[in-house]
């Protein structure tokens, strides 16, 4: 009997896979045009009972649909706080941008379980239609009452000038890994694929990209058609399959040892550039397409408790400011409240943060890792531009970490190991590379002497 209940739960859970993030609102299926009276919100961002009572009610098959239209005085970004207590068990919630017909959602009650205050994805518009539907007239209240307008940080110039970027002198450049899933995320990183036969016939652009001293490489599955909405599993590297993703992932990591990792996937059907803050070591994932439908092992990370979290290390604020400054028409923000969807996006985001932790423990430098959800309305060229902008901000931080004086072996820690390397170099036992010499030259006299050893030993012992 226990086994039957477990199987039932997994089946029920699978009915809400992340693929439903691409489900259309009922509004797009209705034959009649929805006319909802606008509620104007200029300074007050709470919905009253009177506001909610103005919702238009429509019947669609077995579901009752409620529509509430909100008009703001400007196009500042907004999020909505979703109330678990008012959310019906079989309810479905969308937020629709009436200018673009893009949307954020759907949301379901089960998704709200991890958070005391569940915050929706962000919209950047002055006119929003809320669609909330319930089955069998099971209406227990309207689950949206509060609206928040995030404070935007001022745009600032990065403090690391181009002149301070370290020039790579070794033949084998450090590599930065980009991965993607559904379009437009995979199309945004396609020019960085080294597979010029089938994936990137226009040629790899990642070789010493922009003369910044790094090779940028990308991996992603292929879908037919390329602009698919309901894309399925795909073909090639990192198919939308837990086992295939894990096998391909660790083979890629072992082959390139990246110093930074950015994973991408499609997010809401809008123009968002959503940076995910945390990823869960889940045991209850949504089903993929091919047996076994769940990760093996499950949870994936045996060194972390079930539902344990790993966090992004991407430079979140600088990426947001850079995307804003580029005027691409995108809505960049950080999702601080939820994971990345309990499907392949979360699985991939967790693998990135997990890999960084594993490389840290092995003293192999991997400075940054994190996941970005790419809005489904973004065209491929714009997605590529936003990838490049995000990548430049990541490289600035990697350059900063690699500028650490005395970090001769590049593990982001100054330790006795670095001291041994410089001593062996002076004794002639082992010769350092030109890049290591630059890092070891602590008194900037262009030669490595006992003075550099003394300065480094002071750093090691905390002086």
Task: Explain this structure.
This protein is α/β, with parallel strands linked by helices and 463 residues long. The chain folds into 3 domains: 130 residues, Sandwich (Jelly Rolls); 241 residues, Peptidase C15, pyroglutamyl peptidase I-like (Aminopeptidase); 45 residues, no CATH class. Helix content is 26%, strand content 22%. Helix 4 packs parallel to helix 6, helix 5 crosses helix 7 and helix 8 packs antiparallel against helix 10. It is elongated and about 85 Å long. It starts with a helix and ends with a helix. The N terminus is likely disordered.
Summarize the structure.
This protein is an alpha/beta fold and 463 residues long. The protein folds into three domains: 130 residues, Sandwich (Jelly Rolls), CATH 2.60.120; 241 residues, Aminopeptidase; 45 residues, no CATH class.
Features:
6-stranded mixed beta sheet; alpha/beta; Aminopeptidase; 3 domains; single chain; 10 helices
SSE arrangement:
Blueprint: H1 2-14, E1 38-41, H2 49-53, E2 56-60, E3 63-72, E4 77-82, E5 92-97, E6 103-107, E7 118-119, E8 123-124, E9 127-135, E10 144-148, E11 174-179, H3 185-189, E12 214-219, E13 221-222, E14 235-236, H4 242-256, E15 260-266, E16 272-276, E17 278-280, E18 309-311, H5 316-325, E19 331-335, H6 344-361, E20 368-374, H7 380-402, H8 416-427, H9 434-440, H10 450-460
Parallel strand pairs: 1-3, 11-12, 11-15, 15-20, 16-19
Antiparallel strand pairs: 2-3, 3-9, 4-7, 4-8, 4-10, 5-6, 5-9, 13-14, 16-20, 17-18
Assign the CATH topology of the largest domain: Aminopeptidase
CATH superfamily of the largest domain: Peptidase C15, pyroglutamyl peptidase I-like
> How does the overall form come out from the CA principal axes?
elongated
> In angstroms, what is the radius of gyration?
25 Å
Number of E strands: 20
Give the count of structural domains: 3
Structural class: alpha/beta
User: In CATH, what is the class of the largest domain?
Assistant: Alpha Beta
- List the total number of helices: 10
In what range is the share of β-strand residues? 15-25%
Describe the main β-sheet briefly: 6 strands, mixed
Average pLDDT reading: 82
In quaternary terms, these chains amount to single chain
| Separation, N- and C-terminal Cα atoms | 65 Å
Helix fraction, binned, reads: 25-40%
Low-confidence stretches: 1-21, 152-171
